[in-house]
TrEMBL record, chain A:
Top-level division of the source organism's lineage: Bacteria
Record InterPro entries: 4Fe4S_Fe-S-bd, 4Fe4S_Fe_S_CS, Helical_ferredxn
Organism: Mesoterricola silvestris
One Pfam family per UniProt: Fer4_22
Cited Gene3D superfamilies: Alpha-helical ferredoxin (1.10.1060.10)
Record carries keyword Mitochondrion: no
MF terms (GO), sorted A to Z: iron-sulfur cluster binding; metal ion binding
Keywords recorded for this protein, A-Z: Iron, Iron-sulfur, Metal-binding
Protein name: 4Fe-4S ferredoxin
4Fe-4S ferredoxin-type domain mapped to chain residues: 219-250, 298-326
Keyword Transport attached: no
UniProtKB/TrEMBL annotation, chain B:
Protein name, UniProt field: 4Fe-4S ferredoxin
Molecular function per GO: iron-sulfur cluster binding; metal ion binding
Species the sequence originates in: Mesoterricola silvestris
PROSITE patterns, per database record: 4FE4S_FER_1 (PS00198), 4FE4S_FER_2 (PS51379)
Domain 4Fe-4S ferredoxin-type: 196-226
Pfam families cross-referenced by the UniProt entry: Fer4_17 (PF13534)
């Protein structure tokens, strides 16, 4: 059971200062050049005043767009391999939405599915999340269709919900309690505040969709839906749960580095075999893979969905591949 | 007659297999639609909000397979079509451009050239101002501007994939045996990618600005290709997309060139 407090607006600077004093970097949505993006902040004043979501997702805090896995140097007789150490700076994610906070669960499913990925885990251990519930939404949002909600506590260590004069603070985990302990004066007893968030109507029947996908693999719908897809990776790169990566080496004559970088199943190179064969040769097959991975393979393998309904993909898509709309269509007979 | 009526006629008569146009999308946006049946022609819209250059679809295998298509095309799309014809990527007989309000049929390269000659290319005021601002910066300032902007790049390639002139089946960016350009989205990788892209489009960019519109993180990436294109225009007096004949500055060579390095 979560402990609830009232966190006055005026106490946020004290909270930020206490977190900073504890050596933690605070990443929060900021308004830079008209774009809402996550940036390190020193005070609450720097946090964007009005935003639905950031453009990119918060996954970068645990799964950066480039991560060095190892370094190698070529000696006269042998190659010297050296493991890279995870760069896991103690970080507080402030102000991400509940959809994004829950997105880390989907990353965890993959990074700890078999081998425990030490880079991801080191960053997750160093990460604490103060989510903020939504009082606004737009037409791209569909969290309630995928088991989430604008007031969902899943994934947050503390969830704040805006109320008159500040926030209702639900402290949910030991990490959350540790943050409260750093700034005990900032949190006041809850006078019985009502948690009010925006309403997000359910757009489609998700369990029905997942069942329907079982016999829809060979269906003209994927070709029809994907005709306008230009096959870029914008949707995957802004997605809080997309976890595809590429491993590449950058080297010169003396040595180099092995890097892990973001990738997307939407690109033709992603499944290209060394033989030259490509099992997902057309954009229709790649679009289908994106839908199936999130709504069929994830539930099958991890008993969860690979989508949190944040709608970032829809907002980022240069040709308006509206995911929610396509899923609703695919759920129907 | 309006566009919907025109589309219906074209599809019913079998003159085209599909009409590539715009329909209403999320939050009032306009998005591409592929109308293959006459009864679906009602989805089509054509107004000032239709910004995307639909010519980018003409070189895609899925669209090629459809057969002859009609495409609603503003001046930028028409320029892209001519440039694609010049580069032997599309054939006149497979294409019907619907210009103006969507009812003006342009069935040949010559018709498109004549139609375009009426409206010479002019950059949008905002882009012109930005280019001028960049032009006035010294090298250090310009370097700082692009470093800051390119640091946002996540290498999603939305700019490349939206560009009507980026049609290569196998892009230099994707070459990994050997790897020419770093895959990773770090400072060097981002810079190299955008430099290579700009250079590949110099003399070929029709200045539609779709790369900049497509960028999910809002980098004004079109200014790089615009700048190269404007340089080519100033120095050689040529513009991409003016003609369907391959005669543009950076791909032709004459034995009597006054520069000695070329011999």
């Amino acid at each position: 059971m979560a402990e609830t407090f009232f966190l006055p607006q005026a106490s946020l600077d004290a909270l930020f200062a206490a977190l900073a004093k504890d050596g933690r970097r605070i990443l929060a949505p900021t308004d830079r050049d008209g774009r809402t993006e996550l940036n390190p902040v020193a005070s609450f004043q720097e946090v964007a005043a009005d935003y639905i979501q950031t453009i990119l997702s918060a996954k970068e805090a645990a799964f950066p767009k480039v991560e060095r896995l190892m370094t190698f140097t070529l000696g006269a007789k042998a190659v010297d391999l050296k493991d890279a150490e995870p760069h896991a700076e103690p970080t507080v994610l402030f102000g991400v939405r509940p959809c994004e906070a829950s997105g880390f669960g989907a990353l965890d499913a993959v990074f700890n599915w078999d081998t425990r990925d030490r880079f991801f885990n080191a960053r997750m251990e160093a990460l604490a999340i103060i989510g903020v519930g939504c009082t606004k939404k737009d037409d791209a949002c569909f969290c309630t269709s995928v088991g989430g909600g604008p007031g969902s506590t899943r994934g947050s260590d503390i969830l704040l919900t805006p109320v008159e004069g500040g926030f209702l603070a639900e402290v949910l985990t030991p990490k959350g309690r540790a943050m409260v302990a750093l700034a005990p004066g900032a949190f006041q007893p809850d006078p019985g505040l009502e948690k009010k968030v925006v309403e997000v109507p359910v757009a489609f029947d998700q369990p029905g969709l997942t069942r329907r996908l079982k016999d829809r693999f060979e269906d003209g719908i994927w070709m029809e839906q994907s005709l306008r897809c230009v096959g870029c990776g914008a949707c995957a790169y802004v997605c809080p749960t997309c976890v595809c990566f590429d491993i590449v080496e950058e080297a010169d004559a003396k040595g180099g580095h092995r890097l892990r970088t973001w990738d997307s199943c939407g690109g033709p190179m992603f499944t290209l075999h060394a033989s030259g064969h490509n099992p997902r040769e057309t954009q229709a097959q790649r679009w289908r893979q994106r839908v199936y991975h999130k709504f069929s393979y994830y539930p099958e393998r991890y008993d969860m969905l690979g989508c949190v309904g944040c709608g970032k993909c829809t907002r980022a898509c240069p040709v308006d591949m509206n995911l929610q709309e396509h899923l609703a269509e695919a759920a129907q007979a | 007659m309006d566009l919907r009526e025109k589309a219906r006629q074209l599809l019913e008569s079998g003159e085209v297999k599909a009409v590539i146009g715009y329909e209403k999308g999320t939050m009032g946006a306009r998005r591409p639609v592929f109308v293959k049946k006459a009864e679906r022609a009602d989805r089509l819209v054509l107004d000032g909000d239709c910004a995307q250059n639909l010519a980018t679809y003409l070189t895609r295998p899925e669209i090629r397979k459809l057969g002859r298509v009609a495409i609603t095309a503003g001046p930028d799309a028409l320029r892209a079509i001519l440039q694609l014809m010049a580069e032997r990527q599309i054939e006149e007989e497979n294409l019907l451009a619907l210009a103006g309000d969507g009812t003006v049929e342009l069935a040949s390269a010559q018709a498109i050239e004549e139609h375009l000659a009426l409206a010479p290319k002019e950059l949008p005021a905002r882009d012109r101002e930005l280019l001028e601002r960049l032009g006035k910066m010294d090298r250090a300032e310009r370097w700082a501007f692009w470093q800051k902007e390119l640091s946002r790049c996540v290498k999603c390639y939305a700019c490349r994939n939206s560009c009507p002139m980026c049609y290569c089946g196998h892009c230099t960016m994707d070459c990994n045996r050997p790897q020419w350009v770093p895959v990773a989205s770090h400072a060097l990788g981002n810079l190299e990618y955008h430099m290579v892209r700009a250079m590949h489009l110099a003399g070929r960019c029709v200045e539609c600005g779709d790369c900049g519109r497509a960028c999910p993180v809002g980098i004004p990436i079109h200014l790089l290709t615009f700048n190269c294109e404007e340089s080519v225009h100033q120095q050689f007096g040529q513009r991409a997309g003016a003609s369907s004949r391959l005669d543009y500055a950076l791909s032709t060579f004459r034995p009597d060139d006054k520069e000695s390095f070329i011999r």
